Amino acid sequence: MQKYIIVTGGASGLGLALAKRWAKAGAFVCIADINDEAANIALSELQTINNECFYQHCDVTKLKDIQQLKQTALDKWPQVDMIVNNAGVATADRIEDESISQWQWVLEINLLAAVKVSQVFTPLFKLQQQGYFLNVASQAGITPIPYMASYNASKAAMVSLSETLRLELADDNICVSVLCPGFFKTNLGDSLKTKLTNMKSMLGRVFESAEITSEQVAEQAYQAVTKRKFMILTHSEGKKVFRFKQWLPIHWYLAMVLKQTAKLRARVGKE
């Protein structure tokens, strides 16, 4: 079991749920985040589980912050066993309306931050002769929906990055898993950038009415990592749609998804 864990974006939502799940299993956890206020509240909760957990302010888009995160962890711990690349934001807009600056913003946080973290910690994992990356992508990265091109693309890239690293680092005893949850109760909508009011309200309702909680997603992730499973799908509907995408001719699959998203396209199209 991984004993020394760093969770980026660990101050709230799924990141905090993952931190708590590993802490309950006896791990020492560092939550890395930019929201100091939320992180201090989260840390007080974490320390009721394991009082050796700590918080490190870290903007994962800044290389110097990631390097400082590594140094702080090694000052406190003998090693780092696992990195959870969880920090992320959400976007939704029409392809013709979404600015390149918004594309750059979501890619910088959802993808390139994980690349930077991986570049900083991979040499340490190689030196230790063991390590684990748990990368948080999304169901949207494997079965995307309309009007979320930049978000979908960032998460699809995270899946591809994870598969690449799984193969590239295997001989160094470094394992990689990618978590692809569907909609669950979370605060991801708080970071949503969009000009589409119908899309924002619809996604808000979906997050709020989701039957699966962040704690349940974290539990599934924990169990899958103990088995060193690569792709972790958490929702039964998401698993079914992904299987259809794998098994059906692509034009059949796209026809199915066009039918499923017809109401969404009609509602957003009215704006």
Automatic annotation (TrEMBL):
Top-rank taxon, per record: Bacteria
Keywords: Oxidoreductase
A GO CC term assigned to this protein in UniProt: membrane
GO MF terms held by the record: oxidoreductase activity
Keyword Oxidoreductase attributed: yes
InterPro entries: NAD(P)-bd_dom_sf, Sc_DH/Rdtase_CS, SDR_fam
Recorded family membership: Belongs to the short-chain dehydrogenases/reductases (SDR) family.
Protein name in the entry: SDR family oxidoreductase
